[in-house]
Write a structure and sequence with these properties.
Layout: H1 2-38, H2 41-45, H3 58-69, H4 84-90, H5 101-139, H6 147-153, H7 161-164, H8 184-192, H9 195-202, H10 207-222, H11 226-239, H12 248-263, H13 285-312, H14 318-329, H15 340-346, H16 349-361, H17 367-375, H18 381-396, H19 402-412, H20 416-421, H21 423-449, H22 455-504, H23 511-520, H24 524-530
Length: 531
């Protein structure tokens, strides 16, 4: 009819406006980077410790490529941590006579790609949230007390509670979600226009490639393409060893769920019925078989990449020691925004192996508990687990940079209902994290430039960054679990109320049951009508 046509036309105009905003923001990000590059900002940021790391440094990359082009092995020293395939792909951009601008232009394109992939992740999550339906939307509604009740609690009125105010809290109607939404374009532009991401690009750091592969894995899994997600994870493990392993389980489950939902033309998970815990399937054998195949695919692709690297190195295994063993052993103790460098500087040699094992092995304790507690509750849970895994990678990798925290914050903005649930605490912890990142260059200058301090000055800011970052992730995860539990409690209350109504009221009367149904779903107007 005419009304539906008008709604479709309006939706098309809104989508076109959002796409135009995204591309306009991408153009602004590109122009900003080009202007700063033309002003010579690259030479200023190139050695900032919070922006580069031993596995992403452009200065180390140039040294590796110089040795490679001179016919020597780039892995003969301790400075090269780039895999052979990466060196061969970037070698044409650093040959004599080639402008350094080409390498910078490649990194700008990578940043734009990350922004577009983040936007796609936000769109895919919005579709999954829509499939969650009324149950998840009701759990996301924040109930607010009426002003009269707040005045009564503050002692501003002496009237009795029964005469002053209706005891029912004001609530949004059923189906209403959060009061605000974060546009998918905003999520992508938050990363692209983030000063930390801009500065990281100006350093010619390869950190953006890591972010591109992480987002590509999420987008592929969100589209139900397990093969694409496995390939992206294999490439990510090839350039960044071990830590991204926390993404394997959530990406596999997300791809498995999305493939089922998309094949069934968007399965509806909006049921408001209550299910007892013992009725839920803890172990899904179909997913277990899929996960084994997915993990084997990642390992097989990673073995193929290692085999190709071995062929390029003519049978030499030195690249394994330089690119993987050295990174996992944390032999390079260059200061960064992570926790590893200072602890292993102060560590006695006899305890080094123990702490290496603890720092790396504790990652194995995250995926399964998070999956059982949060990730297995589809369709929103797998997305929340994946986004939380991005934050875990940023916090616990051996050589993190400030750009990792920029990606983490952009990812945490996608589920607006979780953000609203923890809005005040989230804002406070984010402020502490940004304070630590802002003060890190100052403490670096106090210690290494002016020689007016020592390593503890810099490590104090490292502690601030990591403590506030871990608390931020914990609060975000707590809010997500709280929403899930609220949805479950709402379904239980609905079942109890409706069962009592069915037992008490006459079977032929449907209006009282409708009123009770509205009351059970959090609609205060239903109970007011009954009164």
């Amino acid at each position: 009819d005419f009304g539906s046509l008008r709604l479709r036309a309006l939706g098309a105009r809104v989508r076109a406006r959002v796409r135009a905003t995204m591309w306009l923001g991408c153009a602004l990000g590109i122009v900003l980077r080009l202007c700063l590059y033309a002003a010579g900002a690259s030479s200023y940021f190139e050695e900032h410790l919070e922006l580069v790391s031993p596995i992403t440094s452009h200065l180390r990359l140039k040294e590796c490529l110089f040795l490679l082009q001179a016919g020597a092995s780039p892995y003969s020293g301790d400075s090269c941590h780039y895999p052979p395939l990466v060196l061969r792909l970037l070698s044409p951009l650093h040959e004599p006579g080639v402008s350094p601008f080409l390498h910078f232009a490649l990194l700008v394109a990578v940043d734009v790609g990350v922004a577009l992939l983040l936007r796609t992740v936000a769109v895919q999550y919005a579709a999954s949230r829509a499939r969650a339906g009324e149950a998840w939307a009701e759990a996301s509604v924040r109930l607010e007390k009426p002003p009269e009740l707040m005045q009564l609690a503050a002692g501003k009125t002496k009237a009795s509670a029964s005469a002053a105010v209706d005891p029912l809290p004001a609530a949004a109607p059923p189906g209403a979600g959060p009061k605000f939404e974060v546009s998918p374009a905003f999520v992508g532009l938050f990363y692209l226009l983030n000063p930390v991401a801009v500065a990281s690009c100006l350093t010619h750091s390869m950190q953006g490639v890591h972010h591109l592969l992480m987002c590509a894995a999420l987008v592929s899994a969100g589209a139900g393409r397990g093969g694409g997600a496995a390939l992206a994870l294999a490439l990510l493990l090839y350039v960044c060893p071990l830590t991204p392993i926390v993404l394997v389980l959530p990406c596999a489950y997300l791809a498995w769920c999305q493939r089922q939902d998309l094949r069934s033309d968007g399965a509806d998970h909006s049921s408001l019925s209550y299910r007892r815990s013992k009725e839920d399937t803890l172990i899904q054998f179909g997913f277990l078989a899929y996960f084994v195949c997915f993990a084997l695919a990642v390992l097989l692709l990673l073995a193929c990449l290692a085999g190709a690297s071995l062929a390029l190195e003519r049978g030499s295994w030195h690249f394994l020691s330089a690119c993987y063993v050295s990174v996992l052993m944390v032999n390079d103790l260059t200061p960064n925004v992570g926790m590893f460098w200072y602890i292993f500087i102060e560590m006695f040699d006899r305890f080094r192996s123990l702490f290496l094992f603890v720092f790396h092995a504790h990652l194995a304790f995250f995926p399964l508990p998070l999956h059982l507690r949060l990730g297995r509750h589809r369709p929103v849970g797998p997305w929340l687990h994946c986004l939380l895994a991005l934050g875990i990678i940023a916090m616990f990798r051996p050589y993190p940079t400030a750009a990792d925290h920029g990606l983490m914050l952009a990812a945490l903005l996608i589920p607006t209902e979780v953000l609203r649930e923890s809005e005040k605490t989230f804002a406070f912890l984010t402020s502490g994290l940004l304070f630590g990142l802002s003060m890190f260059p100052t403490m670096t200058a106090v210690w290494l430039t002016r020689n007016a301090g020592n390593a503890n000055f810099l490590y104090n800011m490292t502690l601030v960054i990591n403590i506030f970052g871990c608390l931020l992730l914990s609060e975000w995860a707590r809010s997500a679990i709280k929403l899930r539990r609220r949805m479950r409690l709402s379904a239980y209350c609905r079942q109890v109320v409706l069962s009592v109504v069915d037992d008490v009221l006459p079977g032929g009367s449907s209006q009282p049951r409708d009123i009770a149904d509205g009351a059970a779903s959090g609609d205060g107007e239903g109970l007011r009508r009954r009164k």
